[in-house]
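Sialate O-acetylesterase
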Amino acid sequence: MKKVLLNLVFLFALVCFAGAQEFKVADIFSDNMVLQQKINNPFWGWGKPGTKVTISTSWNPDKEYTGVVNSKGTWKIAVPTPAAGGPYEVTVTANKKKVFQNVFVGEVWLASGQSNMSMPLKGYYCQPVLGSTEAILSSAKKQIHFINIPTLAAYKPLEHFEAEWVKASPENVAECTAVGWFFADFLQRNMDVPVGIINASYGGSNIEAWMNAEACKQFDDIPVPPLSNETSPWISNVPTVLYNGMIHPLVGYGIKGIIWYQGESNIFNVPRYAPSVAAMVSKWREAWGLGEVPFYYAQIAPYDYKEWNFFTPQWPEVSAYQREAQRQCLTLIPNSAMAVLLDVGERYLIHPRRKKEVGDRLGMLALSKTYGMKGFEAESPTFSKMEVEGNKAIIHFDNQFNGLTSYGKTLEQFEISGDNKVFHKADAYIDEEKGTVVVTCKYVAEPKAVRYAFKDFVKAELFGTGGLPVSSFRTDDWD
């Protein structure tokens, strides 16, 4: 009897080993995928060591690309992609054949973050996305493909997931990230190439969950959990778990850049936010091996966080401080840019309905900074310095495409303070000859600091003439 049991154990182990050696292509590759154009696009997977792997494509049918499964049971082959086009077929052959159909070549972007990125085109329950019906109905005419990576937290880096690329259509696009969709649509309309969006986002997630272990170890107050086989679809704020479960399986897939919308869940530790994002981006780029791949992100929109302030009593205007931290990311992250959303926020709705503006503004950054298009306002004007002339504070701005405007409205969101650090509502106007804002107050004879829209919930009133709002800012560093 004992011998029979031993034989059964041996057979079971043999079957498991054989299964582990089964030839497989990574899950990010499927029918309907979009491959990044004009690069050596990595394909990878698993198999029995020593197995020869061959890849052929219908865009270059006379050429084969070969590799061998290494001693660890993995393989990787780089396949040059042509200029944008399709549909194509990609065939991967080893001890069995896998044919990927309806493959397009174009521009591929990773979309990540928390609930404002994951918010689908149809909206959340009782929380709409403006323009969603028109976008859904017109989606079949667009050459846009997307894949939604399953929300999964893991305590060690994973290799696999269950999802496939789809060609956008009215039947499926309601589940596409709204920001990602409008971003892709903006690129597709202006570049006339297929666009692929990889949506790896998770509502309620904090920045620490998206950082890998190496990034977390740069901070004494971010504990790295021990490695384990535990996974969960319900955990979004434990360090490393979303990187492990949702980003690691994608690492290596050819992308042009990253768009990011996150920050609401980190208002409880504002001082560490900017360096944490910078560490995350650095390690993502290092893992992908694509150098300083573009990182364009959305600043959080104004929202009334009063009910959250018991977490952050030292910062009653916590949203303004977080927006400031996001501005600081620009100086810490090379090849990054920020879409300002000061005009789209809603006082009691943390998921603003105007997602098209978010996608369009991220798209403008990409068109200008990544694809080199010129002749339009791509970035919001940004505060650069304050000068004092008598009782006047003169505010200067960088990134002015064609000057500043308030669209004829009085500027009412400026405050000014003297040495006593007491801020008063200020009188402010745009000096159209110099492209500055002049700020005064009868109660402040010697200005020391100016703040603009530095509140939880505000509506933007200062814009570039292209319609992009100026971010809230302060000239002081007072606590």
